[in-house]
Amino acid sequence: MDVKMELEDVSRREVLRYMGCKGEGPPEVLKLAEEALSLLWKTCEPRHEVREFSLVLGSEGEIETECFQTVSRNLSKNLAGCKGILLFAATLGIGPDHLIRRGALLDMSRALAFQAGAAAILEEYCNQVCGQLKEQYRKQGLYLRPRFSPGYGDFPLSCQPQILHGLEAGKRLGIKLTEGFLMMPSKSVTAVMGLSEIPGVCAPEGCEACGKKDCPYRRDG
Fold it and tell me: In Å, how far from its chain's centre is CA 177?
């Protein structure tokens, strides 16, 4: 799947949100964000992997796939009416991590801008990949539910090892896990997406799917 993303596609509003700004932000912050994005763009190597699996849902939030099994009422609600799932992983590679570490040694505000910029780049990349997947499956009469990642709501991070193993993400994308189930490179993401024959289902994603109401990076609304 060929994703031709441009730097202009990256939402500056999302970068500022990750930097803790409400609204447009002061000029000096905007300048810092643009400088960070420009440097990040030269180091990012976005890649992804996606695979389809069968799905069985239980009546009490049980979820069984060929790749992982768990209990999550939030994810089960997201997948209601689905006949299968896509497992998805994406990463920007190790370049952003090097910039973030270097920035932390010199200027924490630059490190924050690198963190925020990389998060926004990864989000836009995932959105573009998933947009293409939606079109691909729509031609097969299937509709793709929004991404739902481990750590959202009650979907446990402990599912990460099975998901990454099912995608061969270590070999194909270079993603590894820490003992606390955090991914390295840090600007990496995994997600589950339901495949349904029913169109027009509006399921929550991102901040809207997560129960952490006091998160400082939470979107308004």
Answer: 16
Helix axes 95-106, 108-138, angle to 10 degrees: 160
Rounded (10°) CA dihedral 177, 84, 82, 56: -80
Spatial distance between the Cα atoms of 34 and 39, rounded to a whole number of angstroms: 9
Instruction: Record the pTM.
Output: 0.88
Whether 118 maps to a domain, the answer reads yes
Helices (H), the chain: 12-18, 27-43, 73-79, 95-106, 108-138, 160-166, 169-173
Beta bridge partners of 54: 84
Per-residue DSSP letter, 220: P
The tokens describing 32, both together, are 């810092």
Of the candidates 89, 90, 87, the residue with the CA atom closest to the CA atom of residue 52: 87
- Those residues whose C-beta lies under 8 Å from the C-beta of residue 130, and which sit 6 or more positions away, are 88, 144, 147, 193
Strand partners, 2: none
Contacts of 81 (CB under 8 A, 6+ apart): 194, 196, 197, 198, 201
| Domain span at 34 | 11-200
Question: What is the tens place of the pLDDT at every residue in 49-97?
Answer: 999 999 999 999 999 999 999 999 999 999 999 999 999 999 999 999 9
Q: What is the CATH number of the domain that holds 22?
A: 3.40.109.40
The DSSP symbol for 71 reads E
Characterize 163-179 residue by residue with b for buried, 16 or more Cβ atoms within 10 angstroms of its Cβ, and e for exposed: bbebbebeeebebebee
